[in-house]
Amino acid sequence: MQNLNNTINSKLENYIIRAATLNDIDDAVNLENKYWVEMSGKPGSDAGELLHLWKSPIMKLERDSCTVFTKDNIMVGLAYVEDRDPFVKLESSVFVHPEFMGKGIGAYFICWLEARAELSIPKAPDNTRIVLDQYKPVTDITGRNFLERNGYQAVRYFSRMEREIKSLPPEPDFPEGLSVVSGDNMAMRKNEFNRVYAQAQIEIFRDHWGFVEQSVDALVEELEHWEKHKPNFDPSLVFAAMAGNEMVAQLVCTPSIPEDTEMAYIEVVGVVKEWRQKGIALALLHYVFRELFQREIYKVSLDVDSESLTGATRLYEKAGMHSAWQEINFEKEIRPGKDLATQ
To answer: Model pTM?
Structure first.
């Protein structure tokens, strides 16, 4: 905290520093998009998506956000964290206006994030490792170097994979006995579906790198918020592969993304461990590709761990996708201890 105070006193006395409010959403989107356009040539944020996050159960703006404004009310810095049960892995996002780099704003946010992370220690299980995460595109050389100088380590690469759907994909080849249902055509009641979906998702991602298991109740709360508030949420693009009453695979797609309104995005795709190596994931991809093609959506993307423990990258390449760009997961340890994340 002393470093934080010194930074404020020496460099930031001419700025206004406060938590974000929902009224700041347009300023925040503009700032984030200045960054993304510089890094990738495309905007990467919109008001609907950011509001969905800021209103979610994993954030409280007054505690989990920080802004820096000039005296004439221009937002030049923004930081926020997502903090999920069991509170051992805080995902942070930081944006500084390109014209205000090197003025101490980034250094202030480094200190603010660590002070904020300290608040999670009493909520985390005893003797567990607590880390701060932050993602940077590979194109952000300055940001990557800055994090490394401040004690962050690059721990994983992730790839954005894309595909153009130029013709109707092949019929999906599901194992005998499996059926596919969509979120707008579920036999079970909605609250029952969300609970089954959450339980299956935990099983699907338990052996994925970086996975930290949440309680089913916490995940159900996130799912319900997603359905009510996420822009472009379309229940007809939520698919589950069912073996009787058992959910064995999932795929969730949204019809557009901020950086390309004509490109769909696959938020989730995965198969329960005991059902892998049966072609189910590839069949689900073909299933959604066909659905998108019939809706005249001809581009689709997803993000994947480049070193996936389950061979996901090879699967997506088999489905005709290619890597378009990469980002790096940086991590800083706040408290040593037993690591609850899958490694």
So the answer is: 0.89
